[in-house]
Specification:
Elements lengths: L1 E8 L3 H8 L12 E8 L9 E8 L2 E13 L3 E8 L2 E11 L4 E11 L2 H34 L2
Antiparallel strand pairs: 1-7, 2-3, 3-4, 4-5, 5-6, 6-7
Length: 149
């Protein structure tokens, strides 16, 4: 499954970058995130930053351990998580606009276990709609947070 959503934010790209890379405090910005526990914080880079996130998903508490695998300051970062027989990657990227920037969130899920590979075809289309709404809500929360700061 691959999804991508974006939002226009009337705030300079550097300020949005500062907000989206302040992962320790993301529960203050994104309503669905209930708690963040930092596992590893590199001294001089985002790459390798690792955390456990508690999030409200589909009416239940969900826990994921994620880490940043790639990053270019003020441009994008990519996270990875592995659970439930799948690998999940998410990229948050920024591009300049006349009034601020566009924040794009791209999500990719790839089944690794035989069961997940078999289920991904019939279940993927049902999950795509829910996941798109969830990602868009996260972007709406980020927009509200940075524009009202």
């Amino acid at each position: 499954m691959q999804l991508s959503v974006h939002i226009e934010i009337n705030t300079p790209k550097t300020q949005v970058w500062a907000a989206i890379t302040d992962i320790k405090n993301s529960a203050n910005m994104i309503d669905a995130i209930l708690n963040i526990d930092v596992i590893y914080e590199p001294a001089n880079s985002l790459i390798g930053f690792k955390w456990k996130e508690k999030r409200q998903m589909f009416g239940k508490d969900a826990f994921e351990t994620m880490w940043i695998t790639q990053a270019i300051e003020n441009e994008y970062y990519t996270t990875r998580a592995q659970s439930h027989g799948s690998i999940y990657t998410t990229e948050l990227s920024l591009s300049d606009t006349a009034k601020g920037c566009t924040l794009t969130m791209s999500f990719h899920a790839q089944g690794q276990s035989l069961l997940m590979k078999l289920l991904s075809k019939p279940m993927g289309w049902m999950m795509a709609s829910s996941m798109t709404k969830m990602l868009q809500t996260d972007l709406d929360n980020i927009k509200t947070f940075v524009e009202n700061k």
